[in-house]
Amino acid sequence: MHFLAVGFLSAVTVDKPTGVLGALATGAEDFIKVFNKGGSVLLSLMGGILPTLVVLLTAVNALVRIIGPERIENLGKAAARPGLQWYPVRYIVLPFVSVFVLTNPMAYTMGRFLPERFKPAFYDSAVSFVHPILGIFPHANPGELFVYVGIATGIQQLGLGLGDLAVRYLLVGLVVIFIRGIVTERITARMMTKSEKGE
Amino acid sequence: MGFASTVTKVGRSVGGVVGILYQAGRDTVDTVIRNVIPFMAFISFIIGLILTTGIGDWIAKGIKGSASSLPGLLLISVVCAIPLLSPLLGPGAVIAQIVGTLLGVEIGKGNIPAQYSLPALFAINPQVGCDFIPVGLALGEAEPATVEIGVPAVLFSRMVTGPLSVVIAYVASFGLYTAAK
Fold this sequence. Notes:
The structure holds two protein chains of two kinds.
Chain A: H1 2-12, H2 19-48, H3 50-67, H4 73-79, H5 87-102, H6 119-127, H7 146-157, H8 163-198
Chain B: H1 2-52, H2 55-67, H3 70-81, H4 86-89, H5 94-109, H6 117-123, H7 133-139, H8 144-172
Helix pairs in contact in B: 1-5, 3-6, 3-8, 6-8, 7-8
């Protein structure tokens, strides 16, 4: 049906306009083509991920409200303890829970339970997790969704599932924020002793 | 008396739950309209521009080589992690979102192998939050002395952990979408 229509149209089409007017007409067509294409992309985004996103955000927002942000304060106090076994709590569990429950940017307020020497490292760890979490829990940072969705759209166009990418992004993210926390903590400690000596 | 209080209790808790759900829905629609849809509109325009004009091919040539090999991705991450550049690239993650979308278009066209999507997600993002360090630390009630040390500490740390995250993601991407080429 579609091809028939195209065939019919091409049979009655007049010659392509030439000259100045022709160039203007072609220019106008090319101009509007950009926005037609953009419009169809927008429609596919709105029809594709937006409805799921709205329902998911609603569910998770409700869950967070039921849990209540004040309950995670004990976790913050636990993470402040010195000792090797508290490293994973400080730079994996606490950033994850803060970003999940408090979302970007309120997650960084959890740093107030930590001693000064851990604060930069915790911030580094938490802020580095606001994107890896997006694949599975987009409520944590919906304003910056396209860091993940931009690339994920390409995967979708290939007809591949997103689950694998989303899970791996989250898991690698956890490993990276752990390393980042430790490295930044070391650097902070070194700079703090240096500045104390200088004084 | 017992029956009436039960009815009251049930009515109250159901009302509470419905209230929470309703408020959650309201928050969601608020965020979607204020933050998500505007960005979708903006991104759609950029994609439309890329797909219909020659810009796409031009960008493809530029990033195809760098985004479909480990050294290329490392180079991107090193550039993004330079302490003077990273705070400039950070705000609103706009740069990361645009570059992510560009890469997504190229992945969709098959110019970049799908398995590179995972390391690419880290390569385009070593600068995350570098613009926000003083504010983030202030939210954590850090003292001014901590902020003074914390800003360079995080920026220097990124020079190490930025490229490192790409390597970790690259190793973790083995077996990701490989059967599908």
